[in-house]
Structure formats: structure tokens, C-alpha cells
Amino acid sequence: MSVSPEHLDVVVVGAGISGISAAYHLQTMCPDREFAILEGRSALGGTWDLFRYPGVRSDSDMHTLGFKFKPWSNPKAIADGPSILDYLNETVDEFGIREKIRFDHRISHAHWSWSDRRWTLTVDHGDDTFEITTNFVFMCTGYYSYRGGFTPEFAGADTFGGQIIHPQEWPEALDYAGKRVAVIGSGATAMTLVPAMTDRAEHVTMVQRTPTWVVSAPSQDPIANALRKVLPNGLAFELTRQKNRRFGEYVYRQTRTNPDRVRRRLLSELAKHLPQEQIDAHFTPSYNPWDQRVCLVPDADLFEAINAGKADVVTDTIERFTETGIQLDSGTHIDADIIVTATGLNLVTIGEMDLDIDGEKIDFSELWTYKGLGYSEIPNLISVFGYINASWTLRADLIVEYGCRLLNHMRNTGTDTATPRLRPSDLDMSRRPFIDDFPAGYMQRMMPMLPKQGDQAPWLNTQSVSEDMKLIGKEPVDDGVMVFG
User: Fold this and answer.
1) Pick from 106, 100, 107, 53: nearest CA to 80
2) Cα gap 484→400, rounded to integer Å
3) How far, rounded to the nearest angstrom, does the alpha carbon of residue 125 sit from its chain's CA centroid?
4) Domain interval for residue 386
5) Which of 126, 238, 274, 311 has the most CB atoms less than 10 A away?
6) Once rounded to an integer, what is the mean pLDDT over residues 182-195?
């Protein structure tokens, strides 16, 4: 006798920041819906459980990376990975979310049937494979592969006599005490690793192909900590959240409208920490701030390590790895016992699962993004993709709130499908990349896989908190584009 698959009203895919936010909002806004979180790994936290390299931290402040429904009360606003993971675990326990999480449940395939008006998910759990059906899917898996990071091909890598490590696969028992370490990369991970490893390593060298814009800021927010002394914690948190959100938007807007002024300001700030020859050689990019992500250095830790002689930066291109280190094209050789390839992530769409509609495989690159959270002609599915120029959580909260409003509208109108569909007036839209005006390599590698955005609402991915608060947060869900059936 065959057993019918388990059916849920909503399935949330992923138990990281986005999935936890989705669970909280489903419980509070849609208490009549039965849902579960399917998490492919054996622990919650996503990024903050996966990455275990020394010094791992956020480069977004916790007043915006934290949930608006769960105030961050730690004095440190720029938090380390273990503290963030503790916060996430505390959140799921405080709000009864843990019981909704099914660990080691990886979805390999999602099939939509128009005749049944539901999704059928193929789930792998240990040695078992089974199906779960659901009316609606919240995709909360982030945008990079958990199977491995991005490492370019380096000539001679097989001749190196030491260890080669990608930060995404950091060995738990790695002993780098007294070792010479070369960190390849110039992004947030490299700039976190270099000062963090100087406490035990003999010396750490950051090898970068080109400079990155870097700004130092205190790890503690004095205004936030002062507000918490005189105001209730929740109010102090909300005021700080709004302050930081608005300031971040202001700075980003200045980089678009007055980049030379921002460039001069960043360089003048660097001059407080480093000699001019260091700034000219290694910290003056050829591009404008926020053409690629600006890296945060909390409490000037990277600069202090450089000034103390514990670390240095080399700007050059790599010819090959040797038995004892890295040979650069300039002729310089970097001696190393350990090489860390902080060279980025492998980006993916929709959690590395296959999707089809009535047997026709979905090619996301042929679709249009709807408000940066849905896809043209894909019913009953929203997908969380955060900001590249602000905290991920600011957008995650907006998207899952929208999803809950959408579910409630469907209940109130007696409809069971919601599908973004182009209007006749949308058919001649100009096609633009899903993320526009951001030429960072890791994003450019992903753009061909992603849907396109148009030149008019709601076929936009604004990457602006203020615009999204209107487009996603305030516009009615029944907007003439989302078609209900």
C-alpha cells in the first residue's frame, strides 16, 4: 500500500538568518499555516556555522544584521562568528523555532504541477529519499555553494610542500603557530584572516592582485551603547538600526553621485593608520568606492598588524606556486608554509536544486526578476537575496514579510496560486543584470545564471533599502502583475 507524501502549507528551505526570519514571521503573521524548515546541514546558522576560519566575523553591524524582532544587546556591534551563531541559537529557542527545523534534509528537486497546484519536493535524508508536497516555498538558501569555495587554477600547486587551504573548508585542528602564512585575496575574508592569524603565525603576507577600498571603524558603536543605558533595549536597538541604515544608504548614494569626494575621504582616513607609500602601493584602487564592496577593518586591526611588522601586503600577480611558497610575476618570492586561498565563493541559484514546471526544467537566466524576490511565471515561490551594499537581514526581513502578506491575501481571496506575469506593456523592457553597477568578479561569474531585471517596476532588483521599503514593504500584493488563481 503506497503512502501519500507528507503535505505542508509552506516549506522554508534553509535555517540560516533568512530561514529563521521566515519562521518567525510565519508564526506571527500566518499562525494558521503549517510549515517546516528543511536544512541540508546538521546545524543551523548557515554562513555563521559553516565558516570556522580564525577571526571570522561580520562586516555588517549587528544592529542591521540582527533581526528587528530580536534586539542585539552585545556591546560589540561588529561581531565575531561564534557570537552571531550564539545569537541565532538564542533566537530559535526564544521563539520556539527549533522544533520546526528538520536537519540533514537536502532538497534535490522541486516539481510544480499546475493540475495539483502544489510543489513536490524530493528530499534526501541520510540514506532515504522521499517526497514532501507543499503549497508554497520560501527559498532561504543564500547565494553561494556550501559544497566548496572558488579557487582559481594555480600553476605548480601540486609542487607546494605545505598546506593549501580554502577558508570555506578550514581544518579544525590546523596548527599555524610559528608558520609563515600567505593569504591570497583582497576581500573581506582575507582582511579578516591576516590580523587574526598574526597572534600565532611567524608572519602573514596578504597577496593581492589589485587593491581594495578599506575603511576602519570601531567594533563598538558608542551611540548604541549610550542609548541602551537610558532607553529600553528594544527602542535603543531600533533607533540604532535606523541610524545605521540611513547612514549606510547616505554613504552609498555619495559613492554614486560624488565618488571623488568619497575617494578623498577614504584615503585621508587611511593616512591616519598607514604611511603614504603603503597607501599608494596597496590601498588605492583604480575603481571608485562601491564599484566593488568596501571592506571593513574593525578597530584598525589589519593596519596595526602591518605597522607592528607581523603582516605585510604584496600587490602583484602570481606566476606559480613553488615547493616553498609563491613565485610572483615581478620576480619576488613569498616564502610560505601555509597558503590560504581566500579567493571567493562559488555562487549558485536556488540552493543547487533542480526545478521544473509540469516537467519543463526552469532556466532562471531566461526569466525576469519580480521585485528581486520572485520570478516571472514561477508560481508560489519567493526567494531571499539580500543586499550587496547593506546588511543581508534588512532585505530578508522585507521579503519574508511580503511572503506572509501574500499568503494572507491568498487565504482572504480564496485563491491558491500566485504567479508574477509580464503585462503586454512589459514585453519590450530592456534587459539588465540582476545586480547592476557592481562589477565584482564573484558577482559577474554568477550574473549569467540569474534572471534579468527590467527598466520599470515591479521588474526591478533595486538594491536600495528605501526603495524596497516601498516596492516590497508597502505596495499591495495584488498589483496587477502578481496573478492569483
Assistant:
1) 53
2) 19
3) 26
4) 6-146+346-484
5) 311
6) 96
